[in-house]
Amino acid sequence: MRKTGRPLSFDRSVALDVAMDAFWRYGYEGASVSILTTAMGITPPSLYTAFGDKQRLYLEALDRYMHRPGLDLELLLDRSPTAFDAVKNMLTSASKQQTRPGQPRGCMLMSARVSTPAESSMEKDVIQLRKIVLKMIEKRVERGIQEGDVPDTVNSVDLASFYVMVLQGMSVQARDGAGPKDLLKLANHSLLCWPK
Q1: To the nearest whole number, what is the mean pLDDT of the chain?
Q2: C-alpha span between 131 and 112 (Å, rounded)
Q3: Fold entry, domain 73-191
Q4: What does the alpha-carbon distance between residue 149 and residue 82 come to, in Å, rounded to a whole number?
Q5: Contact (CB, 8 A) for 86 and 140
Q6: Are the CB atoms for 98 and 54 separated by under 8 Å?
Q7: Same topology for domains 12-66 and 73-191, yes or no?
Q8: pLDDT for 24-60, tens place per residue?
Q9: What is the pTM of this model?
């Protein structure tokens, strides 16, 4: 929550979008306060007033990334007719989103890594956000089991974990220069592992 006082002299929502892009491009450690404030067109005191600190800004930027308009993963999974279609649509969308011209490559969330001890609250927060994605996929697989389009012998956690791993691999490949067709090939190959 922002402290009350003088109103902000900038659009907080626009500044958050710019910060999201900077964190996505440079990572948490690489996006210094100087880089962030220059990109956002604000001063360090304004950043702290509006967002608290760099860590809170980063977590808010990750949340913004996960809920960008038109990119709602939960909605995409839910609207697909079968669990297989849901995962296929997710991977197809990822192959396009992670290589879109004019934006950083890869997935901001799947590639997120902070250079802090693994037990730090910051690292735990990032891991927790990735677990939300895992739970969304797991929930859709469980629905597929209930609706009969996924064999009831399938372990939903294991299958969801596998496709989160695929998303993470696609993100690394995109950052290394793979194009949308390359990622789509990886996605389609991973779908050969779908339980029959």
Answers
A1: 90
A2: 13
A3: Tetracycline Repressor; domain 2 (1.10.357)
A4: 6
A5: yes
A6: no
A7: no
A8: 999 888 999 999 999 999 999 999 999 999 999 999 9
A9: 0.86
Q: Looking at the domain covering 12-66, what would its CATH class be?
A: mainly alpha
Q: What is the pLDDT, as a whole number, of residue 72?
A: 82
Write b or e for each residue in 100-113: b if 16 or more Cβ atoms lie within 10 A of its Cβ, otherwise e: eeeebbbbbbbbbe
Hey, what are 62's tokens?
A: 């990750």
Tokens of 51: 């967002």
At residue 67, the pLDDT reads 82
Confidence of residue 2 (pLDDT cuts 50, 70, 90): very low
Phi, psi values for residue 77, rounded to 5°: -65, -40
> Under the phi-then-psi rule, with left for phi > 0, alpha for psi from -120 to 50, and beta for the rest, what region is 118?
alpha
Domain locations in the chain as residue ranges: 12-66, 73-191
**Angle 121-117-173 (CA atoms, 0-180°, nearest 5)?**
95
pLDDT tens digits, residue range 133-156? 999 999 999 999 999 999 999 999
